[in-house]
TrEMBL record:
Belongs to the MMACHC family. InterPro entries: MMACHC. It catalyses: apo-[alkylcobalamin reductase] + an R-cob(III)alamin + glutathione = cob(I)alamin-[alkylcobalamin reductase] + an S-substituted glutathione + H(+); 2 cob(II)alamin-[cyanocobalamin reductase] + 2 hydrogen cyanide + NADP(+) = 2 cyanocob(III)alamin + 2 apo-[cyanocobalamin reductase] + NADPH + H(+); apo-[alkylcobalamin reductase] + methylcob(III)alamin + glutathione = S-methyl glutathione + cob(I)alamin-[alkylcobalamin reductase] + H(+); apo-[alkylcobalamin reductase] + adenosylcob(III)alamin + glutathione = S-adenosylglutathione + cob(I)alamin-[alkylcobalamin reductase] + H(+). The lineage of its organism: Eukaryota, Metazoa, Chordata, Craniata, Vertebrata. GO terms for molecular function: cobalamin binding; cyanocobalamin reductase (cyanide-eliminating) (NADP+) activity; demethylase activity; FAD binding. It comes from Asarcornis scutulata. The keyword Ubl conjugation does not apply. It comes from the Eukaryota. This is Cyanocobalamin reductase / alkylcobalamin dealkylase. GO terms for biological process: cobalamin metabolic process.
Length: 215
């Protein structure tokens, strides 16, 4: 419910819907690269003018919207920002309150070793660890679900030592991706997918055999 999200955030970040409004958080799993992105690029490469992943997600979520012709469906993508430069929604908070992935933050570590350093939090999925992404929100403004029960996300990094290690790796060594394997995972990115996301965005087109088009 939208109210679960709004309840844990300052008013500046609230979503402008009644508390009982139904919402879905959309995640991409490791297999998205082969099952969705590569077929999309192969079929739609002439139309790709910005980030291929963003356009692929937009394409598929628009398809979901078309499945509900009698319903109003609002989509907010993870990359969208407000005129104030703030994100339209806080993806990791949304995933946590939806029970999809646990958002580990500094407050989850009792013996804080970082002093005045800025420490960012990170979501970990019980099946995919850090090998997934939060892509968007699907909101159904005309569907109210007052009796929906909230499910807590799986606290899969449950020890103080592991949480400290996770935040340390994510904040100071995120390039090597070790934080993604903080737990034993069922599936991770392929070597091809790792190479793609490790490449600067402007150069990814070449990996996919695309020529960069101007917007």
């Amino acid at each position: 419910k939208v109210g679960w999200y709004n309840a844990v955030l300052q008013p500046a970040f609230h979503l402008p819907y009644p508390d009982d409004t139904l919402a879905f958080v959309v995640l991409s799993t490791p297999s998205m690269f082969d099952k969705a992105l590569k077929p999309f690029v192969k079929k739609e490469w002439l139309k790709i003018i910005r980030d291929p992943v963003d356009q692929c997600v937009s394409h598929h979520l628009s398809g979901v919207k078309e499945k509900f012709p009698d319903q109003k469906v609002d989509i907010i993508f993870d990359y969208e920002i407000l005129p104030s430069r703030k994100p339209k929604f806080l993806a990791q908070t949304a995933a946590h309150v939806a029970g999809a992935a646990y958002y580990y933050q500094r407050k989850d570590v009792k013996l804080d070793p970082w002093g005045r350093k800025k420490i960012y939090g990170v979501c970990i999925h019980p099946k995919y660890g850090g090998w997934f992404a939060i892509r968007g929100l699907l909101l159904f403004p005309d569907i109210q679900v007052p009796f929906l029960q909230q499910s807590a996300p799986a606290d899969c990094v449950s020890t103080e030592e592991k949480r400290t290690e996770l935040l340390e790796q994510f904040n100071f060594h995120w390039q090597d991706g070790r934080y993604r394997d903080i737990i034993e995972v069922k599936e991770r990115y392929s070597e091809e997918q790792k190479a793609y996301f490790a490449t600067p965005p402007a150069e990814r087109f070449r990996l996919l055999g695309l020529t960069r088009l101007t917007e």
